[in-house]
From TrEMBL:
The keyword Zinc applies. Belongs to the peptidase M32 family. Keywords: Carboxypeptidase, Hydrolase, Metal-binding, Metalloprotease, Protease, Zinc. It comes from the Bacteria. CDD domains: M32_Taq. Broad specificity carboxypetidase that releases amino acids sequentially from the C-terminus, including neutral, aromatic, polar and basic residues. The active site is at residue 255. Its cofactor is Zn(2+). This is Metal-dependent carboxypeptidase.
Amino acid sequence: MSAFDTLMAHARETQALAQVAGRLGWDQETVMPRGAAPQRAEEMAALEGVLHARRTDPRLAEWLAEAEAPDAAGAAQLRLIRRQHERAVKVPARLAAELARVTSRAQGVWAEARAAQDAGAFVPVLAEVVALRREEGAALAQGGDLYDALLQDYEPGTTAAEIEAMFGALGPRLAELRSAVLERPAPAALSGRFDEAAQHALARELAQAFGYDLMRGRIDTAVHPFSAGSGLDVRITTRTDPADPFNCLYSTIHEVGHATYEQNIDAAYLLTPVGQGASMGVHESQSRLYENQLGRSRAFTGWLYGRMREIFGDLGIADEEAFYAAVNRVHRGFIRTESDELQYNLHILMRFDLERALISGDLAAGDLEAAWNDRFGADFGYAPERPSDGFLQDVHWSVGLFGYFPTYTLGNLYAGCLHAAMRRDLPDLDESLGNGDPSPATGWLRETVQRHGGLMEPRDLIAAATGEAPSEIPLLAYLEDKFGHLYGL
């Protein structure tokens, strides 16, 4: 075989093993017995050791030096393999295995601490995770910024300074819009109790309407909804609340955005570096666009209102327009995943600043709860009432995902750009959405974004899909128009 063919065979085996590791993570968050956590930590560490050895194999450098790409896709494969190898060789095998072991254990500690409202039980293991990620950041940065080094795992080519500039342009206008909205009377919310089995059934219906292939996926429940896997096995989770069916329905649509991205990547890239999403920011653009610009649109909620009345009966909402307002109701709340579309990014801006402080060493894990509560009070005007409403609400830091949070807002920015281009190309989209059929939109995303996988760098992919460089301007225009009309501003 040529050097390129040998390299790709090695990459496919590595990717297959990485999928096995991901499946262990899915199992841990869904059906694994609670008592299995210590053993699972050792299993994850052992598998990470195998993966790290493959990613740092000395032969990779030789193959990369000799390999010639047969086409543009091959060039992208080489780019991604080289990037992964160059990062992996900077991280000691001991550190890679220890990170896998500790974050697996920390995830279970976080879940129990969250359920018990016991912040103190989580702090020691969080301190371990932060210390290990700081060590990893130092190894990767080699004298540069630790947070920037970690950020490359989620949004390659982006720096914290660039994100800070975009967020700086976004934050004040969002806060101003929120203040104007909150001065207006709040629309009515849903009332009543909503059967959880019926919620699951409707969530499954919505998942398929948005293009999720259940022959290559499944829907389970978890404390924190997520998507896992790629290619032919892409799974999602959701959760239910008998008083709030939107939690289940829109969490499902969100995760379907992630899952269909992975399912729709060109089959020729299966189990290769290109056979995954271009970045977490691009991934979030899909999930947020599915959930918000499509799922919370006036046209789609008009259809959903009728469907929910068929299933649940009276919703305590007078008509389709009132239902649209209820779906998009700006409301007081602590939980990021349950936040309305207007305030969501303010949750992310806060987390971005806090995790940068943790990684820089300016904030200790033991001071995080107080720092969170102070910042939340300053940004939102009220303080969390219990740990699960505050810094224990998200799973991310327990599993070491420092650098992940800003990709949610980057995803929203990308989604704003994509939505503007989609509306330009699909002038009759609302007619389909009004019939409960988002397939013209999901088909457009499949062709312009999803099928390419990691073929392009994140910003290049968005620019190619939209014809313009990504910016915050389309998102702000969309939000100001939508909530301006909803609240009569």
